[in-house]
Write a structure and sequence with these properties.
single chain, alpha/beta, 10 helices
């Protein structure tokens, strides 16, 4: 549905009828992005989708219905920087949305977006516009689904490049959780940092009775049940007296 056209209608009758009779639990819409810079490159208004979400929720609550929105999102569009992609990812995080499908931009003949893609110029203003390369397009797409295991490396690389390693951690304002047992650093959040204590590593400190370091060679052989070398046997050991 063209929700931007719907929002331009001041009469709420059609919107109410849509929610009451023509939505079977989920309504698909295409905000594509939330960054004002990217939406401007797409020729869209920046606040329409948020206003639409609020009105959609209000009408459904008035009707006593539990219905949801399925947003169609796009990554890598001309004009979209890593910071814009992060802004969209944070928006999804705040809204508790986890899109199952994300459309990565690809040029289509006859569109202004394709002109931007090939010329790196906005044809409406003739000003230069940022066009993500293939590596950045991969990063931007991964940022919209940061919790998928196969996207983790791309998300970390994107956050490192953008200088947003603060978004790795725990909490509602984070995009990615550290791996279990690993510490977040400015260089790589997946490098294990053992906790040093006065008695050694954290593992040794929790088990003070555990032997540490190398054991004598003889003790190791006895523990494994191996025979002692002839040079270390006590003279006469194993013989009966008088023999």
């Amino acid at each position: 549905i063209r929700f931007d056209t719907l929002m331009a209608d001041r009469d709420p009758a059609f919107f109410t009828e849509l929610c009451q009779y023509h939505v079977s639990g989920q309504l698909k819409v295409a905000p594509e992005h939330v960054s004002s810079a990217v939406l401007a490159a797409m020729g869209k208004q920046s606040t329409t989708y948020q206003d639409f979400c609020k009105r959609y929720q209000a009408i459904n609550e008035h009707l006593g219905l539990r219905q949801y929105l399925v947003p169609y999102l796009m990554s890598g569009h001309p004009g979209s920087t890593l910071q814009d992609a992060i802004e969209l990812a944070l928006f999804l995080r705040r809204e508790r949305r986890a899109p199952e499908q994300v459309q990565d931009f690809y040029p289509t003949p006859g569109t202004l977006s394709t002109v931007m893609y090939h010329t790196r110029l906005n044809p409406l203003t003739m000003e230069p516009i940022h066009v993500p390369d293939e590596r950045e397009k991969k990063w931007q797409r991964a940022l919209l689904q940061p919790t998928l295991p196969h996207n983790r490396q791309s998300v970390v690389q994107a956050l490192q490049t953008a200088g947003r390693m603060d978004l790795i951690g725990y909490g509602p304002d984070k995009l990615l959780a550290p791996l279990p047992g690993k510490a977040t650093t400015a260089r790589d959040p997946d490098i294990k940092q053992p906790l040093q204590t006065k008695g050694g590593t954290n593992h040794e400190h929790n088990h003070p009775r555990k032997r540490t370091g190398k054991q004598p060679a003889l003790a190791n052989r006895r523990r494994r049940g191996a025979a002692e070398p002839e040079s270390r046997k006590t003279p006469g050991a194993g013989r009966h007296p008088g023999r």
